Amino acid sequence: MGPLTLLFVSLGVALAVGVPVSFALILSSALVILYEGLPMTVVVQQMFHGINGFTLLALPFFFLAGNVMGDGGISERLVKLAMALVGHLRGGLAHVNVVVGMFISGISGSSTADAAALSTVFAPAMKRRGYPEVFSTCLTACTSTMGVVIPPSILMVIYGATAGVSTGALLLGGILPGVIMGLALMAQSHIFALKYDFPREHPRFLGLCAVWAGIKEAAWPLGVPLIIVVGMAGGVFTPTESASIAAVYALFVTLFVLKTIRWVQLPQIFADTAIQFAQVIFCVTGASIFGWVMAFYQVPDVVNSFILGFTRDWLVVMLLIVLLNVVIGTFMDAIPAILIFVPIIHPLAVEVGIHPVHLGVVVVMTQAFGLLTPPLGMSYMTACAVFGVPMTKIMGLLHLMMIPILLVCILCAVLPWTVLIVPQLIVPAWL
Predict the structure, then answer these.
(1) In-domain check, residue 26
(2) Crossing angle (nearest 10°) for helices 58-71 and 92-108
(3) How far apart are CA 322 and CA 362, in angstroms?
(4) For the chain, how big is the Rg over CA atoms in Å?
(5) What integer best gives the mean pLDDT of the chain?
């Protein structure tokens, strides 16, 4: 048995018997290193090398800011603003669901966290207004995928650290695609609203005064994305520094301004943040040693040579990358998928002229799409758990409602300007 065969067979067996992905990556890599007679110190060295990056320090602060705001009950404040903006449309509460999802995406950076927060708020509200529970669950799950596209984004930080791409440019590049995703979901909601006669929340647009009242209500929570985007774009601080400042801001707002969090809650919030960060870092270490083994046996070079022998058209390569990530996202969580496969596809994309920032945002978007696909779609699993709907019950409608997100992924893949225009306008030096 060759070393690569041993690597992938052992990984497949480990995953099949339920070994966590991080452990499976480490065990299969260590087995190959032992089989080849290489020093086992390589395992520790490469695991440490994978997490020895300044950019990754942004992750615990993004987690902390999201957890603080989530436990601080900021969703209800965002609902008032969204209701003033779109509550008068047919199926108003469905549109509010999407708009609030866009706002929360600018705070948490995690689609799973967004799915939990949105489900908690909209499960009872949409049920009271007569929305079918299957539709409500599917819409909430789809809405939550914007959480890793609109900055701050945990996946953008991990991608930037893995591929050596400007994290600030990736975060800015996700703004327009995230907004397009939201508009696509609102268009789809409008079609469902017309077909099933979903109610309006208001008979007419409430006016600018109501919008201004909603803005004042939501101003403090929305300061988090403003700090991150404006601070980075203005050159005031780096993405890592912006994350730490956003976390401090979130604590200040929830403890002293809104007073929605008590001091006794902080130990639990800090513990949850530490656990989340530890899970991600452990996944990074496992993917790092696994990626080193593949690089040692020149797997990226073999793959790139094969594809370049078939085509050098950047559009064909980009569509192949989208297809690959959609397939991978069905069977693997987004973080290990990025850590393992980005070192393979990144050199290939650069070789055919695809901009690294364009590639990064598209990869994150397609991995966000994977959060909806069974059997490992964390967004739809979270939404089903909170709504109390069996996962098997929503499969048919979910696959239909996923289509707009996939179309937006393809649109942004074939039109680079949708990703690059915002960083070009704000901080062109990052590109």
Answers:
(1) no
(2) 140
(3) 7
(4) 22
(5) 88
